[in-house]
């Protein structure tokens, strides 16, 4: 392992902030990763007990980066049950095609009851079955469904977690919405392997994050337009 000094870490943190535009919290996580690798290798460095001391200059860099970060001025409002219910009512009036209606309803209701982030339901560019939701990741039982989330923002080691979605006998039911969507999907795309995307658009491609912009179009008049589906529900 190459030698590691506080100066190198300071330059690295500055590079991440100035050039890569990475937040301070993420930079700290990256440096924690470096610490883990060096400690695992057994190489004596500034992270080992005999050499450890407070990295005061690096901490000063952290504070400076944090002060320069621009906080979002946009007020992010929570996605409430009433908004979801009104949205489903509007969807069933025929705003979109039956397929898109079933897709949006299932995605939003599952995200709401499962406390999922938008990035956990959608893909940015290319679908990857090893980390994105697939058909095989949903299992139906008598009174509930199990959604297996392979990876998430709070699961950096990809341990995976099972999310239980229960029937609730209302118009906003995650299990019924999923079953309805899958039925519509099977009628449109007859062949689908278990590793294919769980949520797909009308062209058969995995649901992209950009598609979510239509989910809370102001023309729906469901609520204030600052209620966004891209808000991290789990962090509210």
TrEMBL record:
Recorded GO MF terms: DNA binding
Protein name: Uncharacterized protein
Chain ranges passing through the membrane: 95-115
UniProtKB keywords: Membrane, Transmembrane, Transmembrane helix
Annotated organism of origin: Mytilus edulis (Blue mussel)
One Gene Ontology biological process: DNA recombination
């Amino acid at each position: 392992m190459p030698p590691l000094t506080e100066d190198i870490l300071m330059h690295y943190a500055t590079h991440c902030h100035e050039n890569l535009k990475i937040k301070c919290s993420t930079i700290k996580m990256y440096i924690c990763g470096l610490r883990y690798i060096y400690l695992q290798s057994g190489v004596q460095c500034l992270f080992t007990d005999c050499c450890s001391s407070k990295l005061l200059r690096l901490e000063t860099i952290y504070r400076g980066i944090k002060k320069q970060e621009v906080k979002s001025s946009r007020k992010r409002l929570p996605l409430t049950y009433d908004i979801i219910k009104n949205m489903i009512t509007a969807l069933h009036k025929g705003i979109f095609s039956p397929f898109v209606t079933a897709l949006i309803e299932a995605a939003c209701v599952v995200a709401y009851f499962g406390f999922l982030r938008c990035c956990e339901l959608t893909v940015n560019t290319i679908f990857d079955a090893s980390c994105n939701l697939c058909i095989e990741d949903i299992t139906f039982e008598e009174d509930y469904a199990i959604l297996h989330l392979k990876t998430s923002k709070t699961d950096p080691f990809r341990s995976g977690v099972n999310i239980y979605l229960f029937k609730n006998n209302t118009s906003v039911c995650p299990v019924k919405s999923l079953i309805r969507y899958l039925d519509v999907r099977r009628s449109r795309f007859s062949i689908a392997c278990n590793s294919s995307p769980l949520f797909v658009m009308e062209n058969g491609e995995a649901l992209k994050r950009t598609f979510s912009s239509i989910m809370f179009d102001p023309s729906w008049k469901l609520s204030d337009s600052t209620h966004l589906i891209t808000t991290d529900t789990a962090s509210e």
